[in-house]
């Protein structure tokens, strides 16, 4: 027996007799088609476009699996669509193009934009993902949300906001080491800079060590070297970067660090080891040296996962009719996510459960409010 997947199409109108067909198909649908032709804004108000998202992936960076191709991406994106429906009542559909050329991915998304109110880019490898997202951001009139960038950054910033509160720190005075200079690491660094963290106190590391101006870098890594670790103060390995650091954020590979490496960090350290399925450092070992530990795993406290973000994000984007994703929206989503924890905030509860009924409405309201001010 085949499950035939996790999602399906259902009707929102009755189609029980000839009168129903005449109203919702021919000839009745012609009147709506004519109104759309005269006023394209009718499309979002009176068709599926106003509540639909295309989830676009080439399968080149599937979470925990790496490059598995577009066919393998389909069940993953289908699961993402199921989550959007379950938590935000957003209708989404997986789109998994065969071509990986940035211009082809851009063309595919642009060709589909008539039918969808927003585009979700997912599991596209860096640096191609940066090119695709930025070009679509500039050329489309619907919002483009890259979950591996934007969703991760929003979730991390929210969790970090609450962790700083518990450890009596402020963003400007907090030093952060980020392991991973791909889509997630880059987006986290960019959003932290927007959230008043100091460019001098953010250090990004790739597999060769810290990013700094004396390395021969290009593209996104060059931007990171120029806009973080100001003055090239920190050079060397990630272990060197951890000396006296307040925060470690890992979005890289499992088993990168030993517990003893964290002993270099400042007192009351914060460790977010988010690689899946295996964190960058063993959580039990991390607890020996850090006050707050978070992972991406659902079987441990403080799971930092994008599912906390994207349902409310898309609900807010679609409800507001926003034409693009902005930094103001990402910051608003992060503040709403952090605030949802409320009085339950403690060392093992720095983010809410995805099943918290107040989470999606809070993020959606924050995003929609930010859209009004953009």
UniProtKB/TrEMBL annotation:
<dbReference type="InterPro" id="IPR046346">
    <property type="entry name" value="Aminoacid_DH-like_N_sf"/>
</dbReference>
<dbReference type="InterPro" id="IPR037062">
    <property type="entry name" value="Malic_N_dom_sf"/>
</dbReference>
<dbReference type="GO" id="GO:0004470">
    <property type="term" value="F:malic enzyme activity"/>
</dbReference>
<feature type="domain" description="Malic enzyme NAD-binding">
    <location>
        <begin position="149"/>
        <end position="372"/>
    </location>
</feature>
<dbReference type="Pfam" id="PF03949">
    <property type="entry name" value="Malic_M"/>
</dbReference>
<feature type="binding site">
    <location>
        <position position="148"/>
    </location>
    <ligand>
        <name>a divalent metal cation</name>
    </ligand>
</feature>
<dbReference type="InterPro" id="IPR012302">
    <property type="entry name" value="Malic_NAD-bd"/>
</dbReference>
<feature type="binding site">
    <location>
        <position position="276"/>
    </location>
    <ligand>
        <name>(S)-malate</name>
    </ligand>
</feature>
<comment type="similarity">
    <text>Belongs to the malic enzymes family.</text>
</comment>
<protein>
    <submittedName>
        <fullName>NADP-dependent malic enzyme</fullName>
    </submittedName>
</protein>
<dbReference type="InterPro" id="IPR012301">
    <property type="entry name" value="Malic_N_dom"/>
</dbReference>
<feature type="domain" description="Malic enzyme N-terminal">
    <location>
        <begin position="4"/>
        <end position="137"/>
    </location>
</feature>
<feature type="binding site">
    <location>
        <position position="305"/>
    </location>
    <ligand>
        <name>(S)-malate</name>
    </ligand>
</feature>
<keyword id="KW-0560">Oxidoreductase</keyword>
<feature type="binding site">
    <location>
        <position position="123"/>
    </location>
    <ligand>
        <name>a divalent metal cation</name>
    </ligand>
</feature>
<dbReference type="InterPro" id="IPR036291">
    <property type="entry name" value="NAD(P)-bd_dom_sf"/>
</dbReference>
<dbReference type="Pfam" id="PF00390">
    <property type="entry name" value="malic"/>
</dbReference>
<dbReference type="GO" id="GO:0051287">
    <property type="term" value="F:NAD binding"/>
</dbReference>
<dbReference type="InterPro" id="IPR001891">
    <property type="entry name" value="Malic_OxRdtase"/>
</dbReference>
<dbReference type="GO" id="GO:0046872">
    <property type="term" value="F:metal ion binding"/>
</dbReference>
<feature type="binding site">
    <location>
        <position position="122"/>
    </location>
    <ligand>
        <name>a divalent metal cation</name>
    </ligand>
</feature>
<keyword id="KW-0479">Metal-binding</keyword>
<dbReference type="GO" id="GO:0016616">
    <property type="term" value="F:oxidoreductase activity, acting on the CH-OH group of donors, NAD or NADP as acceptor"/>
</dbReference>
<dbReference type="InterPro" id="IPR051674">
    <property type="entry name" value="Malate_Decarboxylase"/>
</dbReference>
């Amino acid at each position: 027996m085949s499950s035939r997947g996790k999602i399906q199409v259902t009707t929102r109108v009755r189609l029980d007799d000839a009168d129903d067909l005449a109203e919702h198909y021919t000839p009745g649908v012609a009147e709506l088609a004519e109104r759309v032709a005269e006023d394209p804004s009718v499309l979002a108000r009176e068709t599926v476009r106003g509540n639909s998202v295309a989830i676009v992936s080439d399968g080149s960076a599937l979470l925990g699996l790496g490059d598995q191709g577009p066919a393998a991406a389909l069940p993953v994106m289908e699961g993402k669509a199921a989550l959007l429906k379950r938590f935000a009542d957003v209708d989404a559909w997986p789109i998994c193009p065969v071509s990986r050329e940035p211009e082809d991915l851009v063309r595919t998304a642009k060709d589909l934009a008539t039918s969808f109110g927003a585009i979700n880019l997912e599991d596209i490898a860096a640096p191609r993902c940066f090119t695709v997202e930025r070009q679509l951001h500039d050329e489309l009139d619907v919002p483009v949300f890259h979950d591996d960038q934007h969703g991760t950054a929003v979730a991390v910033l929210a969790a970090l906001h609450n962790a700083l509160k518990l450890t009596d720190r402020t963003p400007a005075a907090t030093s952060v080491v980020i392991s991973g200079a791909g889509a997630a690491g880059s987006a986290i660094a960019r959003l932290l800079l927007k959230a008043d963290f100091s460019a001098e106190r953010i250090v990004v590391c790739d597999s060769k060590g810290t990013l700094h101006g004396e390395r021969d870098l290009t593209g996104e890594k060059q931007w990171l070297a120029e806009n973080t670790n100001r003055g090239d103060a920190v050079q060397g390995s990630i272990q060197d970067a951890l000396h006296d650091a307040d925060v470690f954020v890992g979005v890289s590979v499992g088993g990168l660090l030993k517990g003893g490496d964290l002993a270099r960090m400042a007192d009351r350290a914060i460790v977010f080891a988010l690689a899946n399925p295996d964190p960058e450092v063993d959580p039990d070992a991390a607890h020996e040296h850090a006050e707050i530990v978070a992972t991406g795993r659902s079987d441990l406290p403080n799971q930092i996962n994008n599912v906390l973000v994207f349902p409310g994000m898309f609900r807010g984007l679609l409800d507001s009719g926003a034409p693009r994703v902005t930094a103001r929206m990402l910051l608003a989503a992060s503040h709403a996510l952090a605030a949802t924890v409320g009085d339950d905030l403690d060392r093992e509860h720095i983010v809410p459960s995805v099943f918290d009924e107040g989470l999606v409405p809070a993020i959606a309201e924050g995003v929609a409010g930010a859209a009004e001010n953009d």
